[in-house]
Write a structure and sequence with these properties.
Length: 93
C-alpha cells in the first residue's frame, strides 16, 4: 500500500529562501531512497510544503530513518520557523 508524507512548514520571512533550499535538499535525499516514487517542495505565500510518495509504509519508515541519519539536526523544528509544522502521514486505500 502506497504511503505519503505531507508537511507544512512556516518559516520566518527572513529564513524563507534558506528553508526552501533545506526542503529541496531533503527531498533529494528522499528521492535516492529505495521505494521513493516522488519527493517535492511546494510553496504558498505563508508556507513551504514538502511531499513524499513511497511504495509502502515500510519504505517510508526506512526513508525517514535515512533522512534523519543523513540530514541530521537540520530537519528538526527550530527558531527559524514561526509556528509548529503540520505533518500528515497518508496511505492509499
Amino acid at each position: 500500500m502506497k504511503a505519503c508524507l505531507v508537511a507544512f512548514h512556516y518559516p520566518h520571512a527572513s529564513h524563507r529562501e534558506e528553508f526552501i533550499a533545506r526542503v529541496r535538499r531533503v527531498a533529494g535525499i528522499f528521492r535516492r531512497t529505495p521505494g521513493c516514487l516522488s519527493a517535492d517542495c511546494w510553496v504558498t505565500d505563508e508556507a513551504v510544503a514538502s511531499t513524499v510518495h513511497m511504495e509502502s509504509a515500510e519504505a517510508l519508515d526506512s526513508a525517514l530513518a535515512t533522512v534523519m541519519a543523513t540530514a541530521g539536526a537540520d530537519i528538526v523544528f527550530d527558531d527559524r520557523e514561526m509556528r509548529p509544522r503540520e505533518i500528515h502521514r497518508l496511505t492509499a486505500p
